[in-house]
Each structure stands twice: as C-alpha cells, then as structure tokens.
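Dear Dr. H.,

I hope your travels went smoothly. While you were away I took the liberty of generating a structure for the chain from your last submission, since the lab meeting agenda had it listed for discussion. I wanted you to have the full record in hand beforehand rather than looking at slides cold. The sequence, exactly as received, is reproduced here:
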Amino acid sequence: MSPITRNAIGALIITVLIMGTVAGALRYLDTLRVAELGQIEDKIAIDTLSLETQFDLLAEAPCEEVSASSVLSSELNNLADRLSFAEERLGNDNEEVVKLKRQYTLLQIKDYQLMKRLARECKNLNPVFVLYFYSNEGDCDSCGRAGYTLSYLRQTYPGLRVYSFDYNLDLGALRTLVAVLGIEPPLPAYVVNGVRVNGIASVKEFESVLPIHLLSTTTPELQDLKP
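The corresponding predicted structure, in token form, is as follows:
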C-alpha cells in the first residue's frame, strides 16, 4: 500500500470518527433538552392545575378575602419565568415550547376575565390592567425594552396587572381577544385600562398613560430605564 493510500485511509477514518463523535454529542444534547423540557412541562402542568383550581375558588370567594395585588399574581409570574426559561433554552419555535405558551396564554386570558369580574363585584378592588402584545418575528425593535419596563412597573406597582401575549401565536382564543380589543400593528401594542396604545416602551411613556393615582408604589421614586 502506497503512502498516499495509507494517508487517504487514515484521513477517512479520522473524518468518520469525528463525524460519529459530533453525531453522538448532538444526540446527547437532544436527550438532555428533551429531559429538561419534560421537567419544565411537569412543573407547568402542576402549576396549571393549581391555577385552574384557584380560579374556581376565587370565583366564589368573598370580596374581603381577595385583593388586586394578590390574586394569582405570583403564580402567573412564576409560570411566566418558567416559560421564558424554556424559550431561552429550547427556542421560541420549539413545538413543546409553543404548546406551553398556548397554555400560559389561556391562563392569562382566564385570569384577566376573572379579575374584571371581581373588580365589578368587589368595591375594594381597583386593579389597573395592561395587556401587552409583542412579536418575536423581528418586526418589533422595542419589544425587548417594553418587556423589561413592564417587569419593572409590575414590581413597583403591586396593583398593576400585566398580561403579555405573543401577537403571532396561533391560538383561537388569542385571535378572538385581538379582534375584540381591535389590536393592530405597529407593535408593541397595549390596552391600558381599556385604552389602546402603540409603540411606547419607556417608564416615562407608560407613566403618561397609566392612571398612577390608582396605583400604590413599593419604591419612593421611579427612574427611567435604559434600553
């Protein structure tokens, strides 16, 4: 066997080994992703069942037993954090992540309906609603900043109820909500206590449309956020 042939065979063997190693590593990573997603799904399934049970209980609760800042806020926020983690790790277009987002979206719509009902029936409740419609399609340059700003405002004002919706999510209930509210681009788009607003992203811009007099603050002073 000539040196050239031996070198060619050696190079081929090395190439095959490298390809096999890469393929094995990718299969291992895929296995980890599936296992990780399974754990997230299990946690979200439990949270979802818990939230649905709480919806039923709160619908029958006396007004003095509920408040605008406590009704399901922490549970929905925890669920949002887990969904964000799944999106970051597995991607926005992952089939299971999309399924989880649909479940979360339905829970948000249900919570919004419940809170509006409680606000009508309970004089001690005076929540301020912000429905936030964003896009992950690359057509919303300020959506990232808007999401960060709303997270800050939600922590600052306990009575602020923020609901975040992926405008492009394929979900019948969301499409109905968009149609009923008359939501149209440009994004980000909002409904702030029944008033439609487009394009704002900073704290100062939100302060100009939020009914601040209805909200108690947890911090002595607000400062504008940087993008």
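Two observations you may find useful: The two ends are 66 Å apart (CA to CA). The CA atoms of residues 153 and 178 lie 23 Å apart.

With kind regards,
E. W.
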